[in-house]
Amino acid sequence: MDSLTHIVLGACIGEVVAGKQLGKKAMFWGILTQSLPDIDFVASFWMNPVNDLLAHRGFTHSFLFIALVAPLLALAADRWHRPHYYSWRGFTGLFALEMLVHVLLDACNAYGTGWFEPFSHYRASFHLLFVADPLFSVWPFIAFMVLLFARTTYKARRKWAISSFVLCTAYIVVSIINKTSVDRAVKEMARQEGVNYKRYFSTPTPLNNLLWFVVLEDDKGYYIGHRSVFDTDTANLHYVLRREDYLEPIENKEDVHQLIRFSQGYYTIDKYDSTLVFNDLRFGQMLGWQDPKAHFVFHYYLQKPDENSLVIQRGRFTNWDKKAIGYLLRRMRGFK
């Protein structure tokens, strides 16, 4: 999830778990430890873009990292706060919970989270939430603002924080229901129309969980399209070839293999102005609900590696104007 969501959630968790013992310092520790797994951003200063893609949400988002760091950080907190009435074991539990929530939430996005590093390179990604979803984040943000300005003697502090957790959980449940509904409809449509596929995924479009980007993979490429939970007719799928043959002139095959691994095999090769481009389909299209042939958000210039510093969200909100936003809102409601 985005950094702001981790910050406000961390503060709310800190309040619920240790607010009575530590006061507002519990919010500080919550913010710090909830944000700690994202310390891997430091690696980007020394790594090339491809290696940085795999380093992000890697070891610092693993269960092993949590098991190692939580007790060590708790030891520092225990000594810093003396004298106090909160044990080292309590700090360890708080910090482990904060980081666990972080890595579990990140796995709800499309990027992929390395829970089992360094023993396995498997990346967990459930495609339930867009990386920044205001309808998910608004509840802990409101609670955070209340906790920040309310006195520690305010009796409803824990209720505000717990209420935000309930609403966030409810939103995730709704996302699961919506995703299940869309997946069932798309797969049934594929069966009826004789679309053969070997792999499938759906992922939410920006800032909502009503309109979903769907991908059905066959041997040569992908059927892609968008479907709202309110759509009643069949989806208009657009076919794109994988075009692996375009990779033949590429000299740095190692980067290509790393990109394929990062994309979990959901990729196409294209040409933009005679430059070869690697597209990762998991991040969707730029205004794809409006233009079925739109470019993909994640596009890596294979022959111009120095131009890939913002590869993950490059062009995510390009050409977002009043008309484009209006079209997105229409598609979310099931209108075409």
Structural class: alpha+beta
Q: What sequence of helices (H) and strands (E) makes up the elements?
A: HHHHHHHEEEEHEEEH
Beta-sheet strand percentage? Answer: 5-15%
Question: Judging from the principal axes of the Cα atoms, what is the shape?
Answer: globular
Q: What is the helical fraction, as a range of percent?
A: 40-55%
Biggest β-sheet description? 4 strands, antiparallel
Strand order of the largest sheet: 1-2-3-4
Summed up, the domain count is 2
Give the number of DSSP strands: 7
Number of helices: 9
Task: Give your account of this protein's structure.
By secondary structure, the chain is of the alpha+beta class. The protein has 2 domains: 3-173, no CATH class; 195-332, no CATH class. The chain is 44% helix and 14% strand. It is built from 9 helices and 7 strands; from the N terminus they run αααααααββββαβββα. The protein has helices at 3-22, 25-35, 49-55, 63-80, 88-106, 134-149, 157-193, 253-262, 322-332; strands at 199-204, 211-217, 221-228, 238-241, 267-272, 275-285, 296-301. The strands form 2 sheets. A 4-stranded antiparallel β-sheet has the order 1-2-3-4. α1 packs antiparallel against α5 (88-106) and α6 (134-149) packs antiparallel against α7 (157-193). The longest helix has 37 residues, at 157-193. The radius of gyration is 22 Å and the shape is globular.
